[in-house]
Write a structure and sequence with these properties.
CATH architecture of the largest domain in chain A: 3-Layer(aba) Sandwich
Number of helices of chain A: 13
Shape of chain A: globular
Distance between the termini of chain A: 18 Å
Order of helices and strands of chain A: EHEEEHHHHEEEHEHEHHEEEHHEHEH
Radius of gyration of chain A: 19 Å
CATH topology of the largest domain in chain A: Rossmann fold
Structural class of chain A: alpha/beta
Largest sheet of chain A: 7 strands, parallel
Oligomer: homodimer
Strand order of the largest sheet of chain A: 5-2-1-9-10-13-14
Number of strands of chain A: 14
Strand content of chain A: 15-25%
CATH class of the largest domain in chain A: Alpha Beta
Number of domains of chain A: 2
């Protein structure tokens, strides 16, 4: 049993690699839901959908989000109706949001709705929202506070981030399937997702850190920072403006005391020793996932690294 | 000021013709909402949308319903999710349903939502739901009672109809804009829509008949039956199984005492005298609307007929 914590595209890629290494019943993906929001009257869960479409093999490879080959007729019509269509949703993607919104309106939990959607697209591993309560990442910028998608999509994550909070997180709780997955896990993998807006909201759900600490399984993170830059998105600028070191070593500092191992890219091999001095093991390996083979190779390396940590701990 | 009562495709065509004859502020279209229903969690209003798309000039000419050139990616995805997609909604059409559902959820009335949608697609005449309360046409068939769309779309209006009722009609009321349109009208036109499932639900809204009778304006109906057949849909079979005469004369019997004039097709010229003996005037003119010019010609004839009735009544 492997549990992994994931945000959007980077998390989806490693989760996809792990799904290629493991039997479906042996993988649980705990997904950030703090960037979920409502638009056009529908409940949109960008990270859940990115992971789901990626695991289903139908993700748009060009964008990372949405469904491959999707069209945008509904969005075009919404624009004709005068809607501000800054948040793009494809026609097939709308079907996902329509069904999820209906299931939530009928009283189902987000966990139940996600399971039903996964069955529909043939995703067998457990895709688990971190919680069933709505939580909203709020981005404090030099120009004021923004909703996450407002910052990330509408403003192309350009504003300088001065603080991040997770609204309504105090009322959130890890779901039973999440707690069960963490309790049963032989290894817990922190995907190379943005540590501030993808992984940290998961950790911030009250009870989540206790569950992680209660697990005897080795926790292993994969650095989303390679050679001082984020491969995708604003993680590097965000780390910098929030006062963190923008490097794999900076990632190690963020996760120190929580993970027993960090996977860093070959480009950062020189950081292995300083990271080890923070009290964690280091695996140096190629971490950039350019294709399906890369994903599976990295997943295999991560699983091997976790297994070695488990052996050493005996 | 002209008010017209309309159902779906036939009503939309004549309303479109009237819109070509009149200034936008001089036309109000009161539309049947008893075949509205909920599917995929969205509120769908087939007659309102058919009239709206037709007046906007974007209706699919091949089907009569939906938007010209629309695609069906969302529906395809809904099918992949295991939804029973017997009710087809195109991607652009979904945008309409998504926005309407959101506006209703926000507490707006159907009248307000319809007005906003009309602004979006550039429809200037007043498109007025008959009421803001949900009403549902229920079709009693030899095989049991069916929801209207279940009968009409899913079962291709094949089952023999033995009775029709309008569920929750007792709680419905004509909206203020509908009452104002009827009160201000110089003529009230009953479109060539199905008399049982399009026009009669409008008339069955408590208070609607009183408002029609209170109006001194001539009421003129256009027969949807030509040469003993409906041009479209099940009106002919429905009239027959409900014990009505399937002819323009049968239509006259249904509307006797309510309208002062009936427009019938040239093919039914021989019925003019028997219809007159029911106590209404008759206009014999081509009523089949094959193209935009036909719509406008028929609208002009109907308006002229109503004007002559108004003159004669002085």
């Amino acid at each position: 049993m492997i549990a992994t914590l994931a945000g959007g595209v980077g998390g989806a890629k490693l989760a996809h690699g792990l799904a290629g290494c493991l039997a479906p019943e042996d993988l649980s993906v705990v997904v950030n839901t703090a960037d979920d929001f409502e638009i056009y009257g529908l409940r949109v869960c960008p990270d859940l959908d990115t992971v789901m479409y990626t695991l289903a093999g139908i993700a748009n490879p060009a964008t990372g989000w949405g469904v491959a080959g999707d069209s945008f007729f509904a969005l075009e019509m919404l624009r004709a109706y005068g809607e501000d269509t800054w948040f793009q949703i494809g026609d097939k993607d709308f079907a996902t949001d329509i069904l999820r919104t209906r299931m939530l309106a009928e009283g189902h939990t987000l966990t139940e709705a996600t399971r039903a959607l996964c069955v529909g697209v043939g995703v067998a591993p457990a895709l688990l929202p971190m919680c069933d309560q709505p939580v909203a990442t709020m981005i404090q910028t030099v120009d004021g506070e923004l909703d996450f998608q407002e910052y990330f999509v509408r403003q192309h994550h350009e504003p300088t981030v001065t603080d991040v909070r997770y609204r309504d997180i105090e009322a959130a709780r890890p779901t039973k399937p999440v707690l069960a997955a963490l309790a049963a896990a032989e290894a817990i993998v922190f995907c190379p997702s943005n540590p501030i807006v993808s992984i940290r909201p998961i950790l911030a759900v009250p009870g989540m850190l206790d569950a992680l600490r209660a697990s005897a399984a080795p926790k292993v993170a994969v650095s989303p920072i390679v050679a001082g830059s984020a491969l995708r998105g604003p993680a590097d600028r965000m780390l910098e403006s929030l006062g963190h070191e923008v490097s794999a070593h900076g990632i190690a500092e963020l996760y120190a005391g929580l993970v027993q191992g960090l996977v860093i890219d070959e480009a950062d091999a020189a950081l292995a020793a300083p990271i080890r001095s923070l009290g964690m093991e280091v695996l140096v390996t190629p971490t950039v996932m350019r294709n399906d083979a890369d994903r599976q190779t990295l997943a295999g390396a991560v699983l091997g690294f976790a297994a070695s940590l488990r052996e050493n701990a005996r």
